[in-house]
Amino acid sequence: PRMEVTDWRAVSQSYIHDKIKSAIESQHIDTNFKPTIIVAACEDAIAPARIVRAELKARGTKLEILNSKLELYDEETNPFNVHYKPWTGSWSGARLLLVDKADNSRTSIAKFIEFLQSKFGEEKAGKADFVEAQIGVFVLHNKLRPKAADLPEEVLNGRYFVGENCENVQIAYPF
Length: 175
Known about the structure:
175 residues; two-stranded parallel ribbon; 8 strands; PRTase-like; glycosyltransferase
C-alpha cells in the first residue's frame, strides 16, 4: 500500500556508522548469522555495505561485497529487473547478507531474495553436493509501515537485521 510521507529526516555518515556498529554488536550478526559474502542491493547500498564489511572485518570476518543493481519502481509499469555481475564463486554453503538502505514497502527486498534463490537453484541443479545457501538481510532503516510483500520465514526468524526502526519518513542520506 502506498502511504504518504509527511516528514523528512537527514542523517550523517557518522550517524549511519554508529547505527551499523551498534546493530552488529547488539544483534551479533558476526556470530549469529556468520555471513560469508555481502550483496549491496543497489548502488545506494554500497556505502552501508562497506561500513557493515568494515565492522565485521574489525571482528575478524573478512568478506567480499557483490554489487548489484536493483530496479523496481512500479511493479505494474516497470517490471522487476536486476543488473547483476555474475558471482564467480559458488553459492554452495554461502551465507549471504543482503544490505539495503531502507525497508520501505519490502517489495524490492522480497524480489531480490527471489532472484538470488533462483541463482542458488540454477547452481544446485548442476551439483549433487550443493549445500543450501542462506540469506540474511541488513537494512539501515526499517520503516514502520504496512509492507506490500513478505520475506521468507527463515529470514524473518533470526536473519533480518535492522540498524534502526523508524516512522514512515523520507530520509536524506549523505551518499
